[in-house]
Amino acid sequence: MAPSVDLARRGTPLGATSALYLGYALESIFDADPTGSRALRRNGRPLQGGERVRVEGLAETLEHLALAGTDAFYRGELAQKLGEDLRARGSHLTPEDLAAFRVNDAPHWRSRSVAGLSPPIRRLPSEERPSRRCSPWRRMEHLDS
Predict the structure, then answer these.
(1) Which end of the chain has fewer CB within 10 Å, C or N?
(2) Greater model confidence, 72 or 8
(3) How far is CA 46 from the centre of its chain?
(4) How many Å apart are CA 26 and CA 41, to the nearest integer?
(5) CA angle, 119 as apex, 117 and 125 as ends, to 5°?
(6) pLDDT band at 96 (very low <50, low <70, confident <90, very high)
(7) Extended strands (E) in the chain
(8) Number of helical H runs and strand E runs in the chain
(9) CA distance 5 to 114
């Protein structure tokens, strides 16, 4: 986790394509969140390509997860705070949804262990579950051949 904490502290350079998109979407999308707005602006103007994006509190959150374990993100105090913050912003995601989340482990792919979300990810555990789940790993099998 140490490299991620370091990167969060230093910030990551904004790519040229992301900077172009930011010019279109900053006010309509990212300014809705004060933290995002502050991370993506310098002196009131949108970041330019190559400038560093630093999200306040991210390094500290990653350090907390490194000490407490990733379970803290889904079931701990951090999950409660995240759920409350999302609810205050009108999200339907709840702390119970976070607690119910399980990572889907995939078989090794190109000598690497892969884990991720299975589509459809547009439904929350608190919503009605789809009757049939789709696995992204079946679609990736052809890449090993």
Answers:
(1) C
(2) 8
(3) 21
(4) 9
(5) 75
(6) confident
(7) 12-13, 41-42, 45-46, 52-53, 104-105, 115-116
(8) 8, 6
(9) 22
Q: b/e per residue, 9-39, with b = 16+ CB within 10 A? A: eebeebeeeebeebeeebeeebeeeeeeeeb
Residue 71 has a pLDDT of 84
Cα–Cα distance, 87 to 29 (Å, whole number): 18
Please identify which residue in the block is written with the tokens 């970041």: 47
Cα separation values, 81 from 23, 74, 75, 87, 94, Å:
31, 11, 10, 10, 10
pLDDT tens per residue, range 113-129 = 665 555 544 445 555 44
Q: How far apart are CA 8 and CA 56, in angstroms?
A: 9
